[in-house]
């Protein structure tokens, strides 16, 4: 029986990945990383709500505490001395919300857990349009990482799956609607935890995606 | 000015890497991972002693707490329900002291810190003879990981350096002697923290290396 793990941050991209994984695999576990980001409590709530929605058993959910990332620093998401900036428009400049090599840390942990539980697929909601400036959101990065998994695991049979990597936000919204994912339970805002700010990079891209898809975003904005 | 980071566990292989890095780079930082292994306090003492020996500034030392690895489990080094076995002779079987994909987690964290501090070289004392059964100690694994770094970091200019990867333990001992590294301050035993047990895989390989090099291992054994 094929087992899959979904890296579920609680955002809309990872939610659509969860929808895909549940459509494609017999057994699906959800993995959440708390890396001490400003909205971590809110994101955790989305994780719980989505896992409840899909009736994922407690034993198939895992939260990994990555607050040790604060010890490394260098990002506005984890460093309290750096403010999260408002959306500045699309650019290829790496934003200051970048945690160096963060996706590799997350993927390594997820692959480790996948090996322990015997999962062979690992879904991640990385999206290129979202973050053209992040080097660890490029397709070539995931190809290279899959090679590391092949070389560095016992069986070499775990594969990273990136269903939304090259999709436009608009198409992710449409895909989610097709899969009937509960967008109302997701959280994307980097800045606020009560109502979404509507101003940060993540809110701006989400709002544009829903607008372009012609669908109303079901969450509340300030 | 070229900056290097050394992953210094406190064992003899990483100590020899530190000796190499100090001979080759102008500025060297030491990084230590505490992943909740049974001998973590003793290994930390070795890290401190070696950093003191080389007069590494406090600001150039970093300890990362990886005790969250216990949440993943699946290894006798971190799982208290699995005993560390005595040395069973050389084999290609992956030992139960294997933490799935551990080196990738460690390398990812180290690369993240390297990017923050601007280091371009990352020394790791992985040794193939030590652990032929560990998939993440194969040269092809490090080649693949260097590719991930090239793809997944801002500047793509951090390189993993594995000076002892294909060396016999005997030759590592001889190299260490040539570099005048303080072997007496290192710790290799997986099992004990007062005197080395002399029985576990790590002790057995260390003792054989010193014996074959014709040099007396300066640490105490039970």
TrEMBL record, chains A, B:
Pathway: Purine metabolism; 7-cyano-7-deazaguanine biosynthesis. GO terms for molecular function: ATP binding; ligase activity, forming carbon-nitrogen bonds; zinc ion binding. InterPro entries: QueC, Rossmann-like_a/b/a_fold. Its cofactor is Zn(2+). Keywords: ATP-binding, Ligase, Metal-binding, Nucleotide-binding, Queuosine biosynthesis, Zinc. It comes from the Bacteria. Its EC number is 6.3.4.20. Zn(2+) binds at residues 189, 197, 200, 203. One of its GO terms (biological process) is tRNA queuosine(34) biosynthetic process. It catalyses: 7-carboxy-7-carbaguanine + NH4(+) + 2 ATP = 7-cyano-7-carbaguanine + 2 AMP + 2 diphosphate + 2 H(+). Binds 1 zinc ion per subunit. Catalyzes the ATP-dependent conversion of 7-carboxy-7-deazaguanine (CDG) to 7-cyano-7-deazaguanine (preQ(0)). Belongs to the QueC family. This is 7-cyano-7-deazaguanine synthase. It comes from Peredibacter starrii.
